[in-house]
Amino acid sequence: VLLRQELHAALSHDQFELFYQPIVEAVSGRIRGLEALIRWRHPEKGLVSPITFIPLAEQTGQIIPIGRWVLRRACQDAAALYAAGERGVPVAVNISSLQFRRDGFLEDVQQVLADTGLPPALLEFEITESVLLDGADQAIELINQLKNIGIQVALDDFGTGFSSLSYLRDLPIHKVKLDRAFIKDILTNRCNAAIVQGIITMAHHMELVVIAEGIEEREQQEDLVRRECDLLQGFLFAKPMPLKDLLSLPDFLP
Ligand code: G
Ligand code: G
Ligand code: MN
Ligand code: NA
């Protein structure tokens, strides 16, 4: 009933978890990164999707403490992987625009890096075009500051909503993530295939790395390899899962 109130208590009751989904090199399928995806383990409802509670958390302001928790936990996990493996695996964290545009975000990030000892090169942020709502200049400055400390930034869900091609030019991002909506029927819909090819070609001319999301079939992988997409993510490779399950995958660490 009052999901809003329960959400308020969820953090103090330790009901959030992070799942991780591998991001793989398109050609080889080898793991090149992980995306952290929050889950709410509700005492009665079971696992609640962030599609339900992130918008609610954004309305109530809860997204700020929840976002801080996600960042800290993801950096702790990535630091543990780094300690266990040879080179570590970069972890991508979704940052809500409210969190990104809030004063003190950069300081929070630096504090978490200091506390966890995670090399900044192993942290990546996924933002959406809504970070530009209050004007582009502030967002550009912050992305540059993150870049200066060694954190990469990806533009998520690209191609849907209000994403403009000029964002690829104006934002000092490192990567662009093609929304699943274009990938779903890339094999049968010539318009979607043309959009995907166009974005990949453009992005490469701007020295951006391209990730395609929602890969479910081998033929989609093959098609995107032909189109020279760099990285892929989707159920074909692995679903989002708890870190301990990932660790038990064969050939997990490079
Ligand atoms: O993995 P999944 O279907 O549950 O994710 C659904 C949506 O929730 C995606 O759009 C994803 O970006 C968003 N999301 C998942 N985890 C986080 C998080 O930690 N912070 C924010 N702000 N969004 C998240
Ligand atoms: O918006 P964002 O890219 O952060 O969201 C990632 C979402 O995509 C998560 O909800 C995740 O569970 C979902 N996802 C990841 N791979 C696939 C896939 O292959 N198919 C579908 N349908 N969803 C996927
Ligand atoms: Mn994302
Ligand atoms: Na996305």
From TrEMBL:
Highest taxon in the source lineage: Bacteria
Ranges for domain EAL: 1-254
Name the UniProt record assigns to this protein: cyclic-guanylate-specific phosphodiesterase
Species: Vreelandella zhuhanensis
